[in-house]
Amino acid sequence: MTILRVQYKIARIPLQLIETNVVEKMKAEAPARLVYEHTLGSLDRAVGNLLGDKSLADRGETLVDSTENRAEAARLDAEARAQKAAADDELKAARETAEKDRRAADAAAQEAARDARQEAEQRKREAAEEAEQEAAATKKKADEQAAATAKAAEERKKTQQAQVDKQEKRAAAPAESELATAAERSEEAESKKDEAERIEKLFLAEKNKD
């Protein structure tokens, strides 16, 4: 057993050199290092148990446990990184979706505001047109009423003027008759005056003859 132990130690020297010069320069969780150290630890553990070398078996067991723990840690770390990457992707997708939703909401809000402004402008124009039409209708009605009132006033004025003219004619009729009678009387008086003067002249003429 002692000779076998010494021979194994001699045979392990190249493996130890590889481990020291190559394997230990790798990352602790590198797959090649984990495989190499796990194989070497399994070999030490098997040989130690076979040769009754507890120290060698324990060292091999420790190396196997270390590689398994590091492999498990590497696996968990890989899973964690994968989960983190997936979470990052989900977060990125969620942010992109939220940004798209926000842009869509902004666009919808702007469109709604634009539609509301256009609708308000349309209602304003319609209200202005209705007010203008109502004002025109009111003005037309007022003009018609004013024209009707003016026409009625003109008719009343004509009627009153006709009545006044009629009354004036009635009032003037007796005066004209009296003027005509006075004129006749004046002509008669003038005729009588002329006749008297003629008789007086004849009388004087007869008197002078005598």
Descriptive account of the structure:
This protein has 3 helices and no strands. It has 210 residues and is mainly alpha-helical. Helix 1 packs antiparallel against helix 2 (31-51) and helix 2 (31-51) packs antiparallel against helix 3 (54-209). The protein is rod-shaped, with a radius of gyration of 73 Å. The mean pLDDT is 82.
Characterize this entry briefly.
Helices cover 94% and strands 0% of the residues. The chain is built from 3 helices and no strands.
What's the shape?
Answer: rod-shaped
Percentage beta strand: under 5%
Roughly what is the average pLDDT, rounded to an integer? Answer: 82
Kindly name the structural category. mainly alpha
Radius of gyration: 73 Å
Q: How far do the termini sit from each other?
A: 233 Å
Amount of helix: over 70%
Number of strands: 0
- H/E topology pattern: HHH
Helix tally?
3
Spans of at least 5 consecutive residues with low confidence: none
Biggest β-sheet description: none
Question: Topology, please?
Answer:
Layout: H1 2-21, H2 31-51, H3 54-209
Q: Tags for this entry?
A:
mainly alpha, 3 helices, 0% strand
